[in-house]
Amino acid sequence: MTLTLPRPRRMPVAGRSLVTRRNIPYLLVLPALLGFLAFKAYPIVAALYISLTTGAGAMRSFVGLDNYVRLVNDPLFWTSLGNTGLILVVQVPIMLLLALLLALALNSSSVRLRGLWRLGVFMPSLTGLVAYGVMFSVILRKDAGLLNWLLSLFGVDPIDWLGSPFWARIAIVIALTWHYTGYNAVIYLAGLQSVPKELYEAAMVDGAGAARRFRSITVPQLRPILLLTVVLSTIGTLQLFDEPFVLTGGGPDNSTLTISLYLYQNGFRYFDFGYAAAIAYALTLIVAGFGFAQMRMQRR
To answer: What's the whole-model pTM score?
Structure first.
């Protein structure tokens, strides 16, 4: 007669129950989720609470919607909103049209050294925002600026680019167009290269000219990319800050004061963080509204 002893049970290894095949995907996502909660979700909620308060530190007090009521009745806010909208309406169509023309030219097989030209077109977008703002502040000087010197060769009197309300807005438009046109041109170029060549060949066989091919083939094929660049350019312009801050500081006479610059002034110059947070949420709603409207227009 043999005596069988019970097999000893294995002791569970610490942590093994947590790392299972079912839990591994959640564990991999956990660092990104924690980062989102700490650096995205919490600041959004905290900013919403700050927008409902006034004061600073321990002296902060809850005021409800008073900051938003103040925002609606603030003429300087509406001035900044009007300046931002004016730059948006003027600059974005000019920039996207130039980008599309550049992309069509760079996609042509008749252009030599296309790689070099493409690099040259894209290079301005690699320049730092503050760096190119300082560069344009030198170029646009009234007395010793390069642009006025070039205009003087044609008999044009010096223009006060940064000291006149009208020309200051033009200076902002010129700087933005120079910096972002190449970026959008590269996006359009990628879209043009994805259009099947058979469509153009069939249209040429049917006798369609260059203008008809552009209108009937190029534009419909690029429609999603056109929408993408319009939405991105609109959002970027509504958040415009660096160029007015470096070139004009919002002047002269608040002619280049944008919403983001006005937000910065209230938050970090006057330390009115509650009102600055209210401006930030107002800007968020404006950006969301523009994006939603553009998506609806594209669907129609």
So the answer is: 0.84
